[in-house]
Design goal:
- Strands 1-7-6-5-2-3-4-8 form an 8-stranded mixed β-sheet, with helices on both faces.
- By secondary structure, the chain is α+β, with helices and mostly antiparallel strands.
- 56% of the residues lie in helices and 16% in strands.
Length: 264
């Protein structure tokens, strides 16, 4: 039982008052028997002292009952909180959520790619492609598969995304240049270096929905926010063995199926 210092003091005080009341009754009875007004003294004294005793005992018993009820409620509240925390943890685990990152974590992605045979990327353009060069070439050299899915430079969505990211791309021409040179040309140069594996490049003409950097071990998913590159936006890291991972993989595959193939 959880008892506060105040609870101990209140209980001790009540018992002390009850003890004094009982002692006072005994004192009156033993010392005033020969007094001419013994009956009156006894009635008045016993009435006062019994009132004190009953009050003290009532407060004491009430304190015990209230304390027990409070402790029961507190224990139930704690138990409910623990149950809710466990439930949420299980829900998070079953959803496949491994972590949430403030932005794209290149080191985590590269680490995941090292033990994977597949890399697949869905982007409008990939400003971090140079940083992923070692992971892409390593995966290809191990006989793996790399799929890069980016926005078609001729798509009308170029103008839409440019208007959303004026602080990143001055105009549509600058955005198109990023797609053609920073992505397509650079990806081809990676493939030329690799001695093995299968590299594929496609461009889509639609809204991408979300940005995806995936391996066969994990996936990083982020939204396309206004005035912010997708790699600079918050990232959700998903485990490969979850339904959520499968949902986004299915989304990637559907965009891939309807995209135009580019020779690499």
């Amino acid at each position: 039982m959880i008892i506060s210092p105040f609870g101990y003091k209140l209980a001790a005080f009540c018992l002390f008052v009850a003890f004094l009341s009982a002692a006072g009754m005994l004192f009156l009875y033993l010392n005033y028997q020969s007094h001419s007004n013994f009956d009156a003294i006894l009635i008045v004294g016993f009435s006062i002292l019994s009132a004190l005793m009953s009050t003290a005992l009532t407060v004491y018993l009430f304190d015990i009952a209230l304390r027990k009820e409070t402790e029961t409620q507190l224990s139930q509240t704690i138990a409910n909180s623990v149950d809710e925390s466990v439930r949420r943890s299980l829900d998070i685990k079953s959803s496949g959520l491994k972590s949430v990152h403030a932005s794209f974590d290149r080191n985590l992605f590269v680490k995941s790619a090292r033990s994977s045979q597949d890399i697949f990327i869905l982007q409008t353009y990939a400003p971090n492609l140079t940083g992923l060069r070692p992971a892409i070439i390593d995966t290809l050299n191990r006989g793996g598969n790399v799929k890069l899915l980016i926005l078609d430079p001729a798509s009308s969505f170029v103008d839409i995304r440019t208007s959303e990211t004026r602080n990143v791309h001055a105009n549509s021409e600058a955005f198109i240049s990023e797609i053609e040179h920073s992505c397509i040309s650079r990806f081809r140069s990676f493939v030329d270096i690799a001695a093995n594996g299968q590299a594929e490049l496609r461009v889509y003409d639609r809204s991408p929905g979300v940005c995806i950097y995936g391996t066969s071990n994990s996936m990083f998913v982020s939204p396309f926010l206004t005035e912010l590159d997708a790699v600079s936006a918050p990232q959700v890291e998903l485990s490969y063995d979850s339904d959520t991972y499968s949902v986004f993989l299915d989304h990637f595959n559907k965009v891939w199926e309807n995209a135009k193939k580019i020779e690499v």
